[in-house]
Amino acid sequence: MVSSGKVQTEKKSLNILVLGDSLAVGYEHEHRLNNQFKPYGIGEQIYEQALFHGHRATYANYGVLGLRTEGLKLWLDAAKQQQTIKPAAVQLGLKDPRVDTLIGDTAQLHDDIVNADLIMLSIGGNDFLQILTQLDLKKTWSSWTAAEREQLNSQLAATTENYAQQLTSILSILSELNPDVMIATQNQYLPVPKLNINGKEVYLEVDSNLANVLIDARATINNSFSEIIAEFNKKGLAIQYIDASTVIEDNALNLTSIAQMDIHPNEKGYKKLAEEYSRLIWGDYRTVEPRKEGIPLSVVVNGKEVISSYPTKLIEGRTYLVLSDITQAMGAKLGWSNKTQTATVTIDDRVVELTIDAKTYKVNGQSYTLNASPAFLDKELNKTYVPVAALSEGLGLFVEYHAKTKTVYVNR
Fold first, then answer.
1. Which of 187, 207, 206, 217 lies closest to 259, judged by CA?
2. CATH 3.30.457.10 domain span(s) along the chain
3. CB burial of residue 288 (10 Å; 0-12, 13-18, 19+)
4. 134 φ, ψ to 5°?
5. pTM of the predicted model, to two decimals?
6. According to CATH, where is 3.40.50.1110 located in the chain?
7. Fewer CB within 10 Å, N side or C side of the chain?
8. Contact residues for 396 (Cβ-Cβ < 8 A; gap 6+)
9. pLDDT, tens only, 27-65
10. What are the two backbone dihedrals, phi and then psi, of residue 257, each rounded to the nearest 5 degrees?
11. 124 three-class SS
12. Does the domain spanning 298-411 belong to CATH 3.90.180.10?
Protein backbone atom coordinates (compact mmCIF):
# COMPACT_ATOMS: atom_id res chain seq x y z
CA MET A 1 0.00 0.00 0.00
CA VAL A 2 1.28 3.44 -0.88
CA SER A 3 -0.36 6.27 1.02
CA SER A 4 0.43 9.53 2.74
CA GLY A 5 -2.51 8.81 5.05
CA LYS A 6 -5.67 6.74 4.84
CA VAL A 7 -8.66 8.15 3.04
CA GLN A 8 -11.14 8.57 5.87
CA THR A 9 -14.74 9.70 6.06
CA GLU A 10 -17.11 10.07 8.98
CA LYS A 11 -20.07 10.64 6.68
CA LYS A 12 -22.93 8.23 7.26
CA SER A 13 -24.04 8.56 3.62
CA LEU A 14 -21.42 7.58 1.06
CA ASN A 15 -21.96 7.87 -2.69
CA ILE A 16 -19.48 5.62 -4.50
CA LEU A 17 -18.66 5.95 -8.18
CA VAL A 18 -16.45 3.45 -10.03
CA LEU A 19 -14.80 4.71 -13.19
CA GLY A 20 -12.42 3.26 -15.76
CA ASP A 21 -11.61 0.11 -17.67
CA SER A 22 -12.25 -3.62 -17.34
CA LEU A 23 -10.80 -3.73 -13.81
CA ALA A 24 -13.46 -1.19 -12.85
CA VAL A 25 -16.03 -3.43 -14.56
CA GLY A 26 -14.88 -6.44 -12.53
CA TYR A 27 -14.31 -8.49 -15.66
CA GLU A 28 -12.96 -12.01 -15.27
CA HIS A 29 -11.74 -14.53 -17.83
CA GLU A 30 -14.58 -15.93 -19.98
CA HIS A 31 -17.20 -13.61 -18.50
CA ARG A 32 -20.01 -12.81 -20.88
CA LEU A 33 -20.73 -9.11 -20.73
CA ASN A 34 -24.37 -8.19 -21.21
CA ASN A 35 -27.07 -6.32 -19.36
CA GLN A 36 -27.57 -9.33 -17.06
CA PHE A 37 -23.88 -9.48 -16.16
CA LYS A 38 -23.43 -9.22 -12.38
CA PRO A 39 -19.75 -8.85 -11.50
CA TYR A 40 -18.22 -9.04 -8.05
CA GLY A 41 -15.14 -6.94 -8.65
CA ILE A 42 -13.38 -4.22 -6.71
CA GLY A 43 -16.28 -1.77 -6.89
CA GLU A 44 -18.93 -4.19 -5.68
CA GLN A 45 -16.74 -5.35 -2.80
CA ILE A 46 -15.88 -1.82 -1.71
CA TYR A 47 -19.58 -0.95 -1.82
CA GLU A 48 -20.18 -3.90 0.47
CA GLN A 49 -17.35 -2.77 2.74
CA ALA A 50 -18.96 0.69 2.91
CA LEU A 51 -22.14 -0.96 4.18
CA PHE A 52 -20.10 -3.03 6.61
CA HIS A 53 -18.52 0.19 7.93
CA GLY A 54 -21.92 1.63 8.76
CA HIS A 55 -22.59 3.86 5.74
CA ARG A 56 -25.84 4.39 3.91
CA ALA A 57 -24.06 3.80 0.63
CA THR A 58 -25.00 4.20 -3.03
CA TYR A 59 -23.04 2.77 -5.92
CA ALA A 60 -22.68 3.48 -9.64
CA ASN A 61 -20.26 1.69 -11.97
CA TYR A 62 -18.99 3.33 -15.17
CA GLY A 63 -16.38 0.73 -16.06
CA VAL A 64 -16.01 0.03 -19.80
CA LEU A 65 -14.18 -2.99 -21.16
CA GLY A 66 -11.15 -1.97 -23.25
CA LEU A 67 -11.25 1.72 -22.31
CA ARG A 68 -7.94 3.62 -22.50
CA THR A 69 -6.92 6.85 -20.79
CA GLU A 70 -7.49 8.97 -23.88
CA GLY A 71 -11.01 7.57 -24.24
CA LEU A 72 -11.85 8.24 -20.62
CA LYS A 73 -10.55 11.80 -20.92
CA LEU A 74 -12.78 12.46 -23.96
CA TRP A 75 -15.76 10.92 -22.17
CA LEU A 76 -15.19 13.09 -19.10
CA ASP A 77 -14.81 16.18 -21.29
CA ALA A 78 -18.27 15.47 -22.67
CA ALA A 79 -19.68 14.83 -19.20
CA LYS A 80 -18.17 18.06 -17.94
CA GLN A 81 -19.99 19.96 -20.69
CA GLN A 82 -23.04 17.67 -20.31
CA GLN A 83 -22.90 17.02 -24.02
CA THR A 84 -23.99 13.75 -25.61
CA ILE A 85 -21.17 11.73 -27.12
CA LYS A 86 -21.17 8.52 -29.14
CA PRO A 87 -18.93 5.58 -28.24
CA ALA A 88 -16.97 5.89 -31.49
CA ALA A 89 -16.09 9.47 -30.57
CA VAL A 90 -14.74 8.26 -27.25
CA GLN A 91 -12.75 5.33 -28.60
CA LEU A 92 -13.00 3.22 -31.73
CA GLY A 93 -13.53 -0.50 -31.40
CA LEU A 94 -14.99 -0.69 -27.89
CA LYS A 95 -16.49 -4.17 -27.61
CA ASP A 96 -18.34 -3.76 -24.33
CA PRO A 97 -21.99 -4.57 -25.29
CA ARG A 98 -23.23 -2.02 -22.71
CA VAL A 99 -21.20 0.80 -24.19
CA ASP A 100 -24.08 2.72 -25.82
CA THR A 101 -26.03 2.97 -22.58
CA LEU A 102 -22.99 3.75 -20.43
CA ILE A 103 -21.30 6.35 -22.58
CA GLY A 104 -24.42 7.99 -23.95
CA ASP A 105 -25.76 9.19 -20.61
CA THR A 106 -23.18 11.91 -19.94
CA ALA A 107 -25.66 14.01 -17.96
CA GLN A 108 -26.05 11.20 -15.43
CA LEU A 109 -22.29 10.65 -15.29
CA HIS A 110 -21.83 14.38 -14.64
CA ASP A 111 -24.33 14.30 -11.77
CA ASP A 112 -22.84 11.13 -10.29
CA ILE A 113 -19.36 12.69 -10.29
CA VAL A 114 -20.61 15.92 -8.73
CA ASN A 115 -22.46 14.00 -5.99
CA ALA A 116 -19.78 11.37 -5.34
CA ASP A 117 -18.06 11.09 -1.98
CA LEU A 118 -15.66 8.42 -3.21
CA ILE A 119 -14.46 7.79 -6.77
CA MET A 120 -12.62 4.56 -7.48
CA LEU A 121 -10.50 4.97 -10.61
CA SER A 122 -8.89 2.18 -12.62
CA ILE A 123 -7.38 3.22 -15.96
CA GLY A 124 -4.23 2.80 -18.02
CA GLY A 125 -3.78 -0.95 -18.38
CA ASN A 126 -5.16 -0.99 -21.93
CA ASP A 127 -2.72 1.74 -22.97
CA PHE A 128 0.19 -0.64 -22.41
CA LEU A 129 -1.61 -3.83 -23.33
CA GLN A 130 -1.48 -2.67 -26.95
CA ILE A 131 2.29 -2.97 -26.79
CA LEU A 132 2.40 -6.29 -24.95
CA THR A 133 0.04 -8.03 -27.35
CA GLN A 134 2.40 -7.23 -30.24
CA LEU A 135 5.42 -8.86 -28.59
CA ASP A 136 6.75 -12.37 -28.98
CA LEU A 137 7.36 -12.92 -25.28
CA LYS A 138 9.29 -16.15 -25.85
CA LYS A 139 11.80 -14.50 -28.16
CA THR A 140 15.13 -14.14 -26.35
CA TRP A 141 16.19 -10.54 -25.73
CA SER A 142 19.67 -11.33 -27.08
CA SER A 143 18.15 -12.10 -30.49
CA TRP A 144 16.45 -8.71 -30.71
CA THR A 145 18.12 -6.35 -33.14
CA ALA A 146 19.17 -2.88 -32.04
CA ALA A 147 16.36 -1.43 -34.14
CA GLU A 148 13.78 -3.69 -32.52
CA ARG A 149 14.98 -2.74 -29.04
CA GLU A 150 14.93 0.93 -29.90
CA GLN A 151 11.39 0.63 -31.30
CA LEU A 152 10.12 -1.08 -28.12
CA ASN A 153 11.77 1.47 -25.86
CA SER A 154 10.34 4.31 -27.96
CA GLN A 155 6.84 2.80 -27.80
CA LEU A 156 7.07 2.39 -24.04
CA ALA A 157 8.38 5.92 -23.54
CA ALA A 158 5.72 7.50 -25.80
CA THR A 159 2.90 5.51 -24.20
CA THR A 160 4.13 6.39 -20.72
CA GLU A 161 4.23 10.09 -21.60
CA ASN A 162 0.74 9.98 -23.11
CA TYR A 163 -0.55 8.03 -20.09
CA ALA A 164 0.83 10.69 -17.75
CA GLN A 165 -0.74 13.50 -19.77
CA GLN A 166 -4.14 11.83 -19.99
CA LEU A 167 -4.17 10.82 -16.32
CA THR A 168 -3.37 14.41 -15.34
CA SER A 169 -6.28 15.62 -17.47
CA ILE A 170 -8.64 12.99 -16.02
CA LEU A 171 -7.80 13.95 -12.44
CA SER A 172 -8.08 17.65 -13.30
CA ILE A 173 -11.61 17.20 -14.68
CA LEU A 174 -12.70 15.13 -11.67
CA SER A 175 -11.29 17.64 -9.20
CA GLU A 176 -12.89 20.54 -11.08
CA LEU A 177 -16.31 18.87 -11.05
CA ASN A 178 -16.00 17.79 -7.43
CA PRO A 179 -13.14 19.42 -5.45
CA ASP A 180 -14.11 17.63 -2.24
CA VAL A 181 -14.28 14.10 -3.61
CA MET A 182 -11.99 11.35 -2.35
CA ILE A 183 -10.30 9.36 -5.11
CA ALA A 184 -8.90 5.87 -4.57
CA THR A 185 -6.92 4.39 -7.44
CA GLN A 186 -4.12 1.95 -8.26
CA ASN A 187 -0.88 1.84 -10.18
CA GLN A 188 -0.12 -0.52 -13.06
CA TYR A 189 0.76 -4.18 -12.67
CA LEU A 190 2.60 -6.49 -15.06
CA PRO A 191 1.29 -10.05 -14.64
CA VAL A 192 4.42 -11.82 -15.86
CA PRO A 193 4.18 -15.28 -14.26
CA LYS A 194 7.24 -16.25 -12.28
CA LEU A 195 8.44 -18.98 -9.96
CA ASN A 196 11.14 -18.99 -7.31
CA ILE A 197 13.37 -22.01 -7.86
CA ASN A 198 16.26 -22.47 -5.44
CA GLY A 199 16.20 -18.76 -4.65
CA LYS A 200 16.23 -17.72 -8.32
CA GLU A 201 13.27 -16.09 -10.07
CA VAL A 202 12.29 -17.88 -13.26
CA TYR A 203 9.68 -16.42 -15.63
CA LEU A 204 7.23 -18.72 -17.36
CA GLU A 205 6.68 -18.37 -21.08
CA VAL A 206 8.72 -15.12 -21.09
CA ASP A 207 12.40 -14.61 -21.75
CA SER A 208 13.97 -13.48 -18.45
CA ASN A 209 15.89 -10.57 -19.94
CA LEU A 210 12.81 -9.33 -21.80
CA ALA A 211 10.81 -9.70 -18.57
CA ASN A 212 13.34 -7.49 -16.79
CA VAL A 213 13.05 -4.88 -19.53
CA LEU A 214 9.27 -4.84 -19.13
CA ILE A 215 9.51 -4.72 -15.32
CA ASP A 216 11.86 -1.73 -15.55
CA ALA A 217 9.36 -0.06 -17.88
CA ARG A 218 6.55 -0.73 -15.43
CA ALA A 219 8.64 0.82 -12.66
CA THR A 220 9.09 3.95 -14.80
CA ILE A 221 5.36 4.09 -15.47
CA ASN A 222 4.52 3.78 -11.79
CA ASN A 223 7.11 6.36 -10.78
CA SER A 224 5.41 8.80 -13.15
CA PHE A 225 2.04 7.81 -11.68
CA SER A 226 3.27 8.46 -8.13
CA GLU A 227 4.63 11.88 -9.09
CA ILE A 228 1.30 12.88 -10.63
CA ILE A 229 -0.61 11.82 -7.51
CA ALA A 230 1.86 13.73 -5.31
CA GLU A 231 1.32 16.91 -7.34
CA PHE A 232 -2.46 16.67 -6.96
CA ASN A 233 -2.09 16.01 -3.25
CA LYS A 234 -0.08 19.23 -2.96
CA LYS A 235 -3.03 21.05 -4.52
CA GLY A 236 -5.35 19.65 -1.85
CA LEU A 237 -7.02 16.83 -3.80
CA ALA A 238 -7.71 13.82 -1.57
CA ILE A 239 -6.29 11.04 -3.72
CA GLN A 240 -4.61 7.86 -2.49
CA TYR A 241 -3.64 4.62 -4.19
CA ILE A 242 -2.80 0.99 -3.59
CA ASP A 243 0.32 -0.66 -4.95
CA ALA A 244 -1.37 -3.08 -7.33
CA SER A 245 1.98 -3.99 -8.90
CA THR A 246 3.23 -5.55 -5.67
CA VAL A 247 -0.11 -7.15 -4.81
CA ILE A 248 -0.53 -8.87 -8.19
CA GLU A 249 3.02 -9.49 -9.40
CA ASP A 250 4.09 -11.34 -6.27
CA ASN A 251 1.47 -14.01 -7.06
CA ALA A 252 0.32 -13.45 -10.62
CA LEU A 253 -0.41 -17.11 -11.37
CA ASN A 254 -2.76 -17.38 -8.39
CA LEU A 255 -4.40 -13.94 -8.63
CA THR A 256 -4.89 -13.50 -12.39
CA SER A 257 -5.90 -15.60 -15.40
CA ILE A 258 -2.49 -15.17 -17.02
CA ALA A 259 -2.19 -18.95 -17.40
CA GLN A 260 -5.10 -18.60 -19.85
CA MET A 261 -3.34 -15.60 -21.46
CA ASP A 262 -5.73 -13.18 -19.76
CA ILE A 263 -4.23 -10.41 -17.63
CA HIS A 264 -7.40 -9.74 -15.61
CA PRO A 265 -7.63 -10.64 -11.93
CA ASN A 266 -9.58 -13.73 -11.07
CA GLU A 267 -11.96 -13.93 -8.11
CA LYS A 268 -9.03 -14.23 -5.68
CA GLY A 269 -7.26 -11.31 -7.34
CA TYR A 270 -10.25 -8.97 -7.09
CA LYS A 271 -10.70 -9.93 -3.45
CA LYS A 272 -7.04 -9.19 -2.72
CA LEU A 273 -7.24 -5.80 -4.42
CA ALA A 274 -10.49 -5.02 -2.60
CA GLU A 275 -8.83 -5.86 0.71
CA GLU A 276 -6.06 -3.35 -0.04
CA TYR A 277 -8.56 -0.68 -1.07
CA SER A 278 -10.62 -1.20 2.07
CA ARG A 279 -7.55 -0.87 4.28
CA LEU A 280 -6.63 2.29 2.38
CA ILE A 281 -10.08 3.82 2.81
CA TRP A 282 -11.15 2.62 6.27
CA GLY A 283 -8.05 1.08 7.80
CA ASP A 284 -9.38 -2.49 7.80
CA TYR A 285 -11.20 -5.13 5.78
CA ARG A 286 -14.23 -6.73 7.42
CA THR A 287 -15.74 -10.18 7.02
CA VAL A 288 -18.61 -11.94 8.74
CA GLU A 289 -18.02 -14.95 10.96
CA PRO A 290 -18.33 -18.39 9.36
CA ARG A 291 -21.98 -19.37 9.57
CA LYS A 292 -22.93 -22.45 11.53
CA GLU A 293 -24.81 -25.22 9.76
CA GLY A 294 -28.45 -24.28 9.28
CA ILE A 295 -27.86 -20.52 9.57
CA PRO A 296 -28.96 -19.09 6.19
CA LEU A 297 -27.38 -15.65 6.34
CA SER A 298 -25.52 -13.06 8.42
CA VAL A 299 -26.81 -9.75 9.75
CA VAL A 300 -24.62 -6.67 10.24
CA VAL A 301 -26.04 -3.64 12.08
CA ASN A 302 -24.22 -0.30 12.19
CA GLY A 303 -20.95 -1.95 11.19
CA LYS A 304 -21.09 -4.85 13.67
CA GLU A 305 -22.24 -8.39 13.01
CA VAL A 306 -25.13 -9.56 15.16
CA ILE A 307 -23.83 -12.64 16.95
CA SER A 308 -26.74 -14.38 18.66
CA SER A 309 -27.23 -17.49 20.71
CA TYR A 310 -30.41 -17.99 18.70
CA PRO A 311 -30.53 -18.88 14.99
CA THR A 312 -31.37 -16.41 12.28
CA LYS A 313 -34.46 -17.57 10.40
CA LEU A 314 -35.31 -17.12 6.73
CA ILE A 315 -39.06 -17.29 6.03
CA GLU A 316 -40.37 -16.80 2.50
CA GLY A 317 -37.21 -14.87 1.63
CA ARG A 318 -37.45 -12.58 4.68
CA THR A 319 -34.96 -12.38 7.53
CA TYR A 320 -36.11 -12.82 11.14
CA LEU A 321 -34.09 -12.26 14.30
CA VAL A 322 -34.86 -12.55 17.99
CA LEU A 323 -36.43 -9.22 19.03
CA SER A 324 -34.02 -8.41 21.86
CA ASP A 325 -30.95 -9.19 19.72
CA ILE A 326 -31.86 -6.92 16.82
CA THR A 327 -33.06 -4.01 18.99
CA GLN A 328 -29.91 -4.16 21.11
CA ALA A 329 -27.76 -4.11 17.97
CA MET A 330 -29.72 -1.10 16.68
CA GLY A 331 -29.31 0.76 19.94
CA ALA A 332 -33.10 0.99 20.18
CA LYS A 333 -35.31 1.24 23.25
CA LEU A 334 -37.54 -1.81 23.66
CA GLY A 335 -40.90 -2.03 25.39
CA TRP A 336 -43.19 -5.05 25.68
CA SER A 337 -46.89 -5.51 26.47
CA ASN A 338 -47.83 -8.97 27.69
CA LYS A 339 -51.50 -8.05 27.42
CA THR A 340 -51.41 -7.21 23.70
CA GLN A 341 -48.29 -9.26 22.83
CA THR A 342 -46.87 -6.11 21.26
CA ALA A 343 -43.26 -4.91 21.08
CA THR A 344 -42.65 -1.16 21.02
CA VAL A 345 -39.28 -0.21 19.52
CA THR A 346 -38.03 3.38 19.60
CA ILE A 347 -35.11 5.20 17.96
CA ASP A 348 -35.12 8.99 18.27
CA ASP A 349 -38.58 10.13 17.15
CA ARG A 350 -39.54 6.90 15.38
CA VAL A 351 -41.71 4.36 17.20
CA VAL A 352 -42.54 0.96 15.68
CA GLU A 353 -45.14 -1.38 17.15
CA LEU A 354 -45.04 -5.06 16.15
CA THR A 355 -47.66 -7.46 17.45
CA ILE A 356 -47.24 -11.22 17.40
CA ASP A 357 -49.21 -12.85 14.56
CA ALA A 358 -50.49 -9.45 13.30
CA LYS A 359 -50.37 -8.77 9.55
CA THR A 360 -49.99 -5.05 10.16
CA TYR A 361 -47.58 -2.93 12.16
CA LYS A 362 -47.54 0.70 13.28
CA VAL A 363 -45.04 3.47 12.72
CA ASN A 364 -45.66 6.53 14.90
CA GLY A 365 -49.25 5.36 15.34
CA GLN A 366 -50.03 4.83 11.66
CA SER A 367 -50.81 1.28 10.50
CA TYR A 368 -49.05 -0.40 7.58
CA THR A 369 -49.44 -3.82 5.99
CA LEU A 370 -46.50 -6.14 6.60
CA ASN A 371 -44.76 -7.25 3.43
CA ALA A 372 -43.69 -10.38 5.30
CA SER A 373 -45.03 -12.99 7.66
CA PRO A 374 -45.93 -11.55 11.09
CA ALA A 375 -43.73 -11.50 14.16
CA PHE A 376 -44.07 -14.81 15.99
CA LEU A 377 -43.19 -16.60 19.21
CA ASP A 378 -40.84 -19.53 18.83
CA LYS A 379 -42.32 -21.71 21.57
CA GLU A 380 -39.38 -24.09 21.68
CA LEU A 381 -36.92 -21.23 22.31
CA ASN A 382 -39.48 -19.03 24.07
CA LYS A 383 -38.25 -16.09 21.99
CA THR A 384 -40.08 -13.53 19.86
CA TYR A 385 -38.86 -13.29 16.27
CA VAL A 386 -39.46 -10.15 14.17
CA PRO A 387 -38.94 -9.33 10.46
CA VAL A 388 -35.69 -7.35 10.28
CA ALA A 389 -36.55 -5.33 7.16
CA ALA A 390 -39.97 -4.16 8.38
CA LEU A 391 -38.60 -3.13 11.76
CA SER A 392 -35.59 -1.39 10.21
CA GLU A 393 -37.55 0.48 7.58
CA GLY A 394 -40.16 1.49 10.14
CA LEU A 395 -37.38 3.01 12.23
CA GLY A 396 -36.03 4.89 9.20
CA LEU A 397 -32.93 2.73 8.91
CA PHE A 398 -31.10 1.71 5.73
CA VAL A 399 -31.48 -1.98 4.82
CA GLU A 400 -29.65 -3.87 2.06
CA TYR A 401 -29.23 -7.57 1.32
CA HIS A 402 -26.24 -8.92 -0.62
CA ALA A 403 -26.86 -12.34 -2.11
CA LYS A 404 -23.19 -12.96 -2.99
CA THR A 405 -22.16 -13.03 0.66
CA LYS A 406 -25.64 -13.82 2.06
CA THR A 407 -25.47 -10.80 4.35
CA VAL A 408 -28.10 -8.27 5.45
CA TYR A 409 -26.80 -4.78 6.30
CA VAL A 410 -28.76 -2.40 8.52
CA ASN A 411 -27.38 1.12 9.06
CA ARG A 412 -28.68 4.19 10.84
1. 206
2. 298-411
3. middle
4. -90, -10
5. 0.92
6. 13-282
7. N
8. 347, 350
9. 998 776 555 667 899 999 999 999 999 999 999 999 999
10. -100, 30
11. coil
12. no
